[in-house]
Amino acid sequence: MRELTVAERCAIPRHSMPHQDPRERVGNFDEVALGWDAETAVKEAQRCLLCRKPQCVASCPAEIDIPGFIAETARGNFREASTILRESSALPAVCGRVCPQETQCEQLCVLGKKHEPVAIGRLERFVSDYALRSDVPLPALPPSTGKKVAVVGAGPAGITVAGDLVKLGHEVTLFEALHMPGGVLVYGIPEFRLPKEIVRQEVDLIRSLGVRLVTNFVVGRTATVDELLEEHDAVFLGNGAGAPSFLGIPGENLNGVYSASEYLTRCNLMRANDFPRNATPVAGGRKVVVLGGGNVAMDAVRVALRLGADEASILYRRSRNELPARLEEIENAEEEGVKFSFLANPVRIVGGEHNCVTGVECVRMELGEPDSSGRRRPIPVAGSEFVIEADTVVVAIGQNANPIVASTATGVETDRRGYFKADAEGRTTKPGVFAGGDIVTGAATVILAIGAGKKAARAMHEYLLDSRWPDFAEA
Ligand SMILES: Cc1cc2nc3c(=O)[nH]c(=O)nc-3n(C[C@H](O)[C@H](O)[C@H](O)COP(=O)(O)OP(=O)(O)OC[C@H]3O[C@@H](n4cnc5c(N)ncnc54)[C@H](O)[C@@H]3O)c2cc1C
User: Fold this and answer.
1) Pick from 106, 93, 95: which is nearest to 62 by CA?
2) pLDDT of 225
């Protein structure tokens, strides 16, 4: 078939993504975005201008050959497209669903200067799903190097390191504290945005390459980093930022108050949505108020609706313009009937009988000059206190580093917030120990964790071959 001209490519409009009807989807945990058929994927791929200096690649932390995989998709060569994707990412079907493409690859897409950018994320999802359905062969492995690596944490960072190192001939064991691998992908992000089955299949691929997975293994308790180093030639720390933050306001210890981590873990990993068939409950939840405005808050409030809340709302101290969550997820939440209380800050959680939550006392806010984050600073309006009724409150204002690994490892320094100090390639202050992902950067994104894992795997490979350890230079 003849190649399309630039004008012809530009004339093709961006394809939309079919979604489950909002009225139906609030009653189930099935995936909201339904994916594309092959014909749509080919047409969308034909929009790509195949730029000689592709900006999309420059802005992808996972260094995916985006024009390469899109060109193969445009020709209908989905297997080849998938092989290109898998060369740089162990989790393409995950990224195709949850990556904030609008602020990464798609933001710099040249087509996007005059038209809408190529839907890179949706194409990534289509190709990876196709590959998971059709058993694309695994890459051949090089001979064993005889070197052993321990990877702590089976989240996106650890999975990437494990996948990249096993492909280089090293023997890799992935130690995971929970009973299931995936990290936030399985315990945080709800099924309706990212089915667990997708994560399982992508993790199974790296296990088929020979990565050994050990679950229910808490590094810092079951064994320390120093003990792992006695049996391995290098260790990667990818234990994430899983400890919840609280506001420090009165009433946070009342019955019916959850951290977003606990609320989402109960629902996602411990199937509270299927109580009593699964033994984990969540409290009543007729009126659920979620404190915060990021992706985690949006996930929690949408889960509350699906658990049958009569009313589920977001309480956010700035206005809609400053909401940090992805626009797509805000719009999904709005369509599903989530209520938003903007310019309101919680000052106290109110309790009643049996120490159960009955409401959230708030103060009205107004926006002042921009602060160091570039967003307008919220300022309380004196005397404007009011109470919102609630029987469940979910605190979704961020995550912190859990100290368990750091406090039991000698010589691995952390910053004052408990995150590991690491250079740009993930080397920590202790020879042989690398770190990356949320436990270095603080809570960030899947693609940044994958990018950190890729860089660390390259540096670990060099170290495993030559044992050289440069003086520590923080990035
Ligand atoms: C609810 C929620 C929604 C999100 N939505 C998005 C989104 O839409 N898009 C996006 O890009 N990002 C999103 N993020 C952020 C993203 O998921 C994280 O940035 C990413 O998962 C970080 O990867 P990681 O590998 O560093 O850590 P994690 O995913 O946290 O994985 C760390 C793993 O280490 C394990 N572990 C911890 N301690 C130990 C120990 N002592 N021993 C052994 N194992 C241990 C944990 O159990 C976990 O499996 C979201 C986060 C949350 C919480």
Assistant:
1) 95
2) 98
Nearest ligand 1 atom to alpha carbon 260:
1
pLDDT number for residue 1? 63
Q: Where are the alpha helices (DSSP H) in 75-209?
A: 78-88, 92-98, 120-134, 156-167, 184-187, 196-208
pLDDT tens digits, residue range 171-227?
999 999 999 999 999 999 999 999 999 999 999 999 999 999 999 999 999 999 999
Q: Which atom of ligand 1 is nearest to the CA of 439?
A: 26
Residue 348: which H helix or E strand, with range? strand 344-351
Say how far apart CA 329 and CA 190 lie, in whole Å: 12
As a whole number of angstroms, the distance between CA 247 and CA 398 comes to 10
Determine if ligand 1 sits within 6 Å of the CB of residue 445. yes
What type of residue sits at position 22?
Answer: P
Assess whether pLDDT exceeds 90 at residue 272: no
Burial 277-308, CB ≥16 within 10 A → b, else e: eeeeebbbbebbbbbbbbbbbbbbbbbbbbbe
Mean per-residue pLDDT of the chain: 94
The percent of residues above 90 in pLDDT, for the chain, comes to: 87
60 lines ligand 1 (CB under 6 A): no
Rounded Cα gap, residues 67 and 189, in angstroms: 29
Please, which residues have CB within 8 angstroms of residue 368's CB and are 6 or more apart in sequence?
A: 376, 377, 378, 379
Residue nearest ligand 1's atom 7 by CA: 98
Q: Which residue's structure tokens are 């130690």?
A: 175
Pocket test for ligand 1, best of 239, 408, 420, 454 (most atoms within 8 A of CB): 239
Is the model's pLDDT at 289 over the cut of 80? Answer: yes
Say what the pTM is. 0.95
Q: What is the DSSP letter of 120?
A: H
Beta bridge partners of 393: 257, 289
Q: What is the mean pLDDT of residues 232-243?
A: 97
C-alpha to C-alpha distance for 371 and 387, rounded to whole angstroms: 28
Q: Which residues are bridge partners to 380 per DSSP?
A: 365
Q: What angle do CA 217, 417, 346 make, to 5 degrees?
A: 100
- Please give the Cα distance from 308 to 129 (Å, whole number): 31
pLDDT tier at 122 (50, 70, 90 boundaries)? very high
**∠ CA 464-469-471, rounded to 5°:** 160
Distance in Å, CA 353 to ligand 1 centroid: 36
Give SS3 for 386: strand
Residue 278 has pLDDT above 90, yes or no: no
How far, in Å, from the CA of 208 to the mean position of ligand 1? 23
pLDDT of 414 higher than 70 = yes
